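=== RUN LOG ===
request id: a7f3
mode: sequence -> structure
chains: 1
length: 205
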Amino acid sequence: MKDMTIIGIAGGTGSGKTTVVKKIVEALPPHYVAVVPLDSYYNDTSHMTEEERRQINFDHPDAFDWKLLNKQIHQLRNGEAIEQPTYSYLKCNRLPETVHVEPKPVIIIEGIMTLWDKKLRNLMDLKIFVDTDSDERLIRNILRDVVERGRTVDMVLNRYLDVLKPMHEQFIEPTKKYADIIIPQGGDNLKGIGIICKYIEGIVR
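=== RESULT ===
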């Protein structure tokens, strides 16, 4: 599809990426943007037992199906619709349902490691890193995981110390260097988000 703008938005868990995406979508004309969440592209684990699935480190690059994601972004760029996979955190596996995504003038790829894969980065016209204080991200993680994912506060804290923090430092934080723009304070930085929205409006027009 000619004149398509592909934007990558990365940042730690609970950094405010979703808020940033929402503000960009709201700033552009209706039905102008397709959002492709990295979370939809966790590997298919149908061949594993439930116990094996529970052991997966979902904050490691190896947890994602980069091949499928790259293939589908190429398809969108070529003007073809895709069937985006869906993923259940409760079942730790892909669901049989898919989401039909049509090519749009703006495609936003959003997720913790969106800037990790070099092939994917090379497809992007604009790379954004949402940077938020680790204490704030932890609080948001606790609130979200307890309410939406049925975890206890202890479970969330243990996971943060054992997995989230080391994985963030090893794999997510280093991708900041690939970003064209860094937004500090995440979704609370309305001025920064506003500047990005104006910039994107300029590109797409």
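=== NOTES ===
The chain has a mean pLDDT of 90.
Helices lie at 17-27, 50-54, 66-77, 118-121, 134-148, 153-172, 190-204.
=== END ===
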